[in-house]
Amino acid sequence: MAIGKVSLQGMFLEDVQFTWNLSGTIDPINDIGKAVTLDTSAANTMKLAGAGDRIYGKLQQIEARAIEGITVRTVSMQFIDIMPFKVGETFAVGDTAVGGGSGTVEVLKVSSVSAPDPNQNTVVEVLSDGTPVVMKLT
Q1: Is residue 85 classed as helix, strand or coil in its secondary structure?
Q2: In angstroms, how far is CA 129 from the centroid of its own chain?
Q3: How far apart are CA 126 and CA 14, in angstroms?
Q4: What pLDDT was estimated at residue 118?
Q5: Contact status, residue 84 vs residue 96, Cβ threshold 8 Å
Q6: Which of 14, 57, 63, 74 is deepest in the core (most CB within 10 A)?
Q7: Pairing of the two strands 70-76 and 17-22
Q8: Bridge partners of 49?
Q9: Beta-strand (E) ranges in 13-103?
Q10: CA distance 123 to 85
Q11: What is the per-residue pLDDT for 4?
């Protein structure tokens, strides 16, 4: 019996998409799909993930609410999807992904203070061009 290819790419859960404030300059076209992390300088605020940052979610949508005079951002807190990655980064299934800078991801560098964490952002597939499919379910 032949086994077909299974891909989990593009899975997200609508029940865990939330509206957040985002700090910094966000490009409404090019920043969709990037990794975000908690910005501790303000309440209820995320920012594009920097190098080594824990990934809290993925930027899904940017909505201008002209009547209210605000722009809000929807962040998926749980997903299995491709993530933009740091140039030159190589991934393997089972790696833990962390912020790579400017909303990209990189592999968690294993050391005496950091080890792969299957409870965070696990690479479950690597596409032929090297793009990681990251699972974030916690």
Answers
A1: strand
A2: 18
A3: 24
A4: 67
A5: no
A6: 57
A7: antiparallel
A8: none
A9: 17-22, 35-38, 45-48, 57-65, 70-76, 79-82, 97-101
A10: 12
A11: 58
pLDDT less than 70: residues of the chain: 1-4, 12, 111-114, 116, 118
First to last CA, the chain: 35
Q: What is the C-alpha to C-alpha distance for residues 6 and 39, in angstroms, rounded to an integer?
A: 36
From the number of C-beta atoms within 10 Å of its C-beta (0-12, 13-18, 19+), residue 112 rates as exposed
Extract the tokens encoding 11: 């899975």
Rounding to the nearest 10 degrees, give the CA dihedral for residues 49, 52, 53, 57: 60
- Phi and psi (nearest 5°) for 15? -70, -15
Q: How far apart are CA 50 and CA 54, in angstroms?
A: 9
| Six-digit token string for 53 | 């940052």
* Phi–psi pair at 47, nearest 5 degrees: -145, 165
Q: 101: phi > 0 → left, psi -120 to 50 → alpha, else beta; which?
A: left
